Amino acid sequence: MSATAESTIAAPRTGRIDPKYTRDKTKSGNFEMLAWLFMRLSGVVLVVLIFVHLFSNLMVGDGINGLDFGFVAGKWADPFWQFWDLALLWLAMLHGTNGVRTIINDYAERDGVRFWLKMVLYAATTVIIVLGTLVIFTFEPCLVGADGMLLESTPAFCETL
After folding, report:
1. Spatial distance between the Cα atoms of 51 and 53, rounded to a whole number of angstroms
2. 80, 6, 8: which is closest to 49 by C-alpha?
3. Domain 29-159 sits in CATH 1.20.1300.10
């Protein structure tokens, strides 16, 4: 049996693409490439940040039994740990936001729905990053004039004030 021109299979991607699967091509594809690269690099950095965070909180000292207000207060009294936790917060939020943005782009078919879902995502991300940053840098465990009942004993870092 011989093959005729009618029964040949067209090469992939030579047919017409359904319009609902096409996006506005006026945007540069460079952003998506940079977003993809950010996901890979931030993922590697996050693994290091998370495992050091978990090790320092759970394995050093009293372990999970030592985690309390005083532990966090002592940790954040050191600028190194403030910036470590800040980097963890920012990278985790931006990494997660970029992932959810990709999911929204993949599954939201209507442009209006896609736009508003991303606006809600960006607003939530901004609020969490701003509030988290404020908490890390304005956290004050040694309240001036307090009766001292917030902590069981006065930590060493409060005595120098």
Report:
1. 5
2. 80
3. yes
Residues 95-142: tens digit of each pLDDT? 999 999 999 999 998 999 999 999 999 999 999 999 999 999 998 877
Can you spell out the DSSP letters for 45-66? HHHHHHHHHHIIIIISTTGGGG
Residue 73 · residue 155 · CB < 8 Å = yes
SS3 121: helix
Q: How far apart are the first and last CA of the chain?
A: 94
pLDDT reported for residue 95: 97
Buried b (16+ CB within 10 A) or exposed e, 133-160: eeebeeeebbeeeeeeeebeeebeebee
Give me the pLDDT at residue 58, please: 87
Q: What is the pTM of this model?
A: 0.72
What residue type is 107 in one-letter code?
Answer: Y
The residue type at 51: F
Q: Which of 47, 56, 55, 48 is nearest to 78 (CA)?
A: 56
Domains of the chain: which residue ranges? 29-159
